[in-house]
Design brief:
about 20% strand, binds iron/sulfur cluster, binds flavin-adenine dinucleotide, about 325 residues, four-stranded antiparallel β-sheet
Length: about 325
C-alpha cells in the first residue's frame, strides 16, 4: 500500500475543505466511507492518494419516505436500505437490487454514496500488472479491447474504454428517475442520476460530474405510480456474491391489461447505468403479450457493440427485459 495521510475531520465542512485541497504532487485528496471498495484499491496500488479523508460519521444516514417520495442519506448502509419497510413495500426495485448485491457482510459496511461511486470491476483496471488501462493510467491504452472482455460493456463504449459500470443500485435508481444531492465546500446542487455518470469518451478516468472535493450527500426518488410495480432481474455467473453479467430494472404502471408507462434500465452492459427510452416508448400503450414485449425489447440492442467475448450480452439483455417485465407485470 502506498503511504498516505488519513484525515478524520470532526465535521463535514472540514472534510469538504480537505477534499478540495490538492495534496503533495498535486494529487487530489480522496474520500473513504465504508471502505469496501477503496481499501481493495489501496491494497492493490490501483489508487495512490497522498491524503485520504474519512467521511465516517459526517454524512446523513437517515432514510425518509413520505407522500413526496424517498430520501436516502449517503451514509445509510446498503443493509439499512434493504431492510427499510417503506423501501421494501413502495420501491421494491431498490431493495431487490441491493439484496442481489455483494454479501451480507459487505452490505453491513458499504454506504449508498460509496455504492454509486464504486469503480469498475474490469480486471485490467484492478491489476496494475497490466500497463495499458486508460482509466487507471490515462493515455496508456486499453487491455480489454482485443483482450478478455466477457464482463465488459456493449453500450456507451468508446475506443478508449469499454468497462461496465458495476453498481446494481444505480440501475434501479435510474429507472425511477432518482436525483443525487451533491455538497461542495461552497455550494450544494441536485443532479439527475441520469446525468451523474459520464460516458468514457476519450477521458474514461473522469467517471462522474462531481467536482474535486464534492461529496454525495443524499439520493432522492420522487413518488411515482411505477415504483410499486417494479422488479430488478440480475443475471450472474453464480447465485450470490457476484456482479451482474446483465441486469434489467423495470417499473410499470399497468391498467386494464395495458401498459400505461414503462421504465427500463440495464446493468452489466453499459459504461454507465443505461436507460432505454426507445424500449419504454414501444411498451407504452401496449399489452403484456410476450410477442409485443419481445418486439419492444429488441430495440435495446440498437447501437450495441460487442467486442468478441461479450457479444452474447446483446441477445441476453433482450431476454432479461422480457422476463423482468413479465415478473413486474404479474405483481398486484
Ligand atoms: C466482494 C464484493 C462484492 C460486491 N458485489 C457487488 C454487487 O454485486 N453489486 C454492487 O452493486 N456492488 C457490489 N460490490 C460493491 C460494493 O457495493 C461497494 O464496494 C460499496 O457499495 C462501496 O461503498 P463504501 O461505503 O464501502 O465506499 P468506499 O469503498 O469507502 O468508497 C468507494 C468510492 O466512493 C467514494 N465515496 C464514498 N462515499 C462518498 C460520498 N458520500 N461522496 C463522495 N465520494 C464518496 C470514495 O472516494 C471511493 O472512490 C461488492 C463489493 C465487494 C467488496
Ligand atoms: S476497459 Fe477501461 S478500465 Fe478496462 S482496461 Fe480498458 S480502459 Fe481500463
Amino acid at each position: 500500500m502506498h503511504p498516505f495521510t488519513l484525515e478524520r475531520p470532526h465535521d463535514l465542512s472540514s472534510a469538504l475543505a480537505f477534499g478540495a485541497q490538492a495534496g503533495r504532487n498535486d494529487a487530489p485528496a480522496e474520500y473513504i466511507a465504508g471502505g469496501t471498495d477503496m481499501v481493495q484499491l489501496l491494497q492493490e496500488y490501483v489508487r495512490r492518494p497522498e491524503r485520504l479523508v474519512s467521511l465516517a460519521g459526517l454524512l446523513d444516514n437517515r432514510i425518509e419516505a413520505g407522500s413526496q417520495g424517498l430520501r436516502i442519506g449517503a451514509a445509510a448502509t446498503m443493509a439499512e436500505v434493504v431492510a427499510h419497510p417503506a423501501v421494501v413495500e413502495q420501491f421494491p426495485i431498490i431493495s431487490e437490487a441491493l439484496l442481489n448485491s455483494a454479501s451480507p457482510q459487505v452490505r453491513n459496511q458499504a454506504t449508498i454514496g460509496g455504492n454509486l461511486l464504486q469503480r469498475t470491476r474490469c480486471p485490467y483496471f484492478r491489476d496494475v500488472g497490466y500497463a495499458a488501462c486508460n482509466k487507471r493510467a490515462p493515455g496508456s491504452g486499453c487491455s480489454a479491447i482485443g483482450g478478455e472482455n466477457r464482463w465488459h460493456a456493449v453500450l456507451g463504449t468508446s475506443d478508449h474504454c469499454i468497462a461496465a459500470n458495476a453498481s446494481d443500485l444505480a440501475v434501479a435508481l435510474i429507472a425511477l428517475d432518482a436525483s443525487v444531492e451533491v455538497r461542495g465546500a461552497d455550494a450544494q446542487r441536485t443532479v439527475p442520476l441520469a446525468d451523474f455518470h459520464r460516458l468514457p469518451g476519450d477521458t474514461p478516468h473522469i467517471e462522474t460530474v462531481l467536482e474535486p472535493g464534492e461529496v454525495i450527500a443524499a439520493i432522492t426518488v420522487s413518488a411515482s405510480p411505477v415504483a410499486r410495480r417494479s422488479h430488478y432481474l440480475k443475471v450472474r455467473d453464480r447465485a450470490s456474491f457476484e456482479f451482474a453479467v446483465v441486469s434489467a430494472a423495470v417499473a410499470l404502471d399497468v391498467g386494464g391489461g395495458r401498459i400505461r408507462e414503462a421504465r427500463v434500465a440495464l446493468g452489466g452492459v453499459g459504461t454507465k447505468p443505461w436507460r432505454v427510452p426507445r424500449v419504454e416508448a414501444a411498451l407504452a400503450g401496449g399489452s403484456l403479450d410476450p410477442a409485443a414485449l419481445r418486439r419492444a425489447a429488441s430495440l435495446a440492442a440498437e447501437g450495441a457493440q460487442g467486442r468478441g467475448h461479450n457479444d452474447f450480452k446483446i441477445e441476453l439483455i433482450q431476454r432479461a427485459i422480457v422476463r423482468a417485465i413479465e415478473t413486474a407485470g404479474a405483481r398486484a
